[in-house]
Each structure stands twice: as C-alpha cells, then as structure tokens.
Amino acid sequence: MPLTISPIVLPVSLMAATGPMCWVSRRRCTVTPIAPTPFHPDGRIDESSIDRMCDFFVKAGVDGMTVLGQLGEAPKMAHEESVGIVKRVLARVKLPIV
After folding, report:
1. Do the Cβ atoms of 62 and 92 come closer than 8 Å?
2. Fewer CB within 10 Å of terminal CB in the chain, N or C?
3. Integer Cα distance of 93 and 85 in angstroms
4. Cβ atoms 97, 54 nearer than 8 A
5. pTM (two decimals)
6. Within 13 Å of residue 38, how many CA atoms lie on the same side as its CB?
C-alpha cells in the first residue's frame, strides 16, 4: 500500500529505503541556525567571535542565519549595539539574515 504525503505519493519500498522524512515534500528544506550573540566577560560585544561564528556557519553550508532576538540578548542591548551587530553580520556573509 502506498503512503500518501501531500503533494506526492511514495511506494512503501521507497520509504523503507530512504526514510520517511527524506521525502516529505518537493520543497527545498533550509538550514537557518539561531546564532548566539557572543560577549566578553565585561559585557562588551565580542566582534571577533561574531566574525568567526559567521565564517563557521558559511563554511558549514547554512542557508541563512537568525541573529538577535531568539536567545534573549537583544532586549538587553542598546539599539546602537543591535544595529552594529546586524551591519557586521550583513557585511560578513551573503546569506539571508532573519
């Protein structure tokens, strides 16, 4: 009996060979990690770590990055600090940024 996963139908033998999650849809899956904001022990933003983190994510082949706002650090920073981080990341990578 075939397994129906909208919008495609797969034979069960194909499902057994490849695993069900490999064929959920024909849409492209993306990897967009949530990037933490690194700080020095005295609370200053660690800009060199931001650069290394961006380079790491690019080398890993991610499709985009999420910065500020997902891990709780954005509300604790001054607006100028947040803008500075976004500008730094945008200048460093040519990926979609959330």
Report:
1. no
2. N
3. 12
4. no
5. 0.67
6. 11
The predicted model gives 13-22 an average pLDDT of 44
Which stretches does DSSP call E strand in 44-87? 66-67
Question: Which amino acid type is present at position 96?
Answer: P
How far apart are alpha carbons 50 and 43 in whole angstroms? 14
Report the run of H or E that residue 89 belongs to, with start and end: helix 79-92
Tell how strand 8-10 and strand 3-5 pair up.
antiparallel
Q: Are 60 and 24 in contact, with CB atoms under 8 Å apart?
A: no
Average pLDDT for 62-74:
82
User: What contacts 24+ positions apart, CB below 8 Å, involve 93-96?
Assistant: 93/54, 93/57, 93/58, 93/65, 95/57, 95/58, 95/62, 95/63, 95/64, 95/65, 96/32, 96/63, 96/64, 96/65
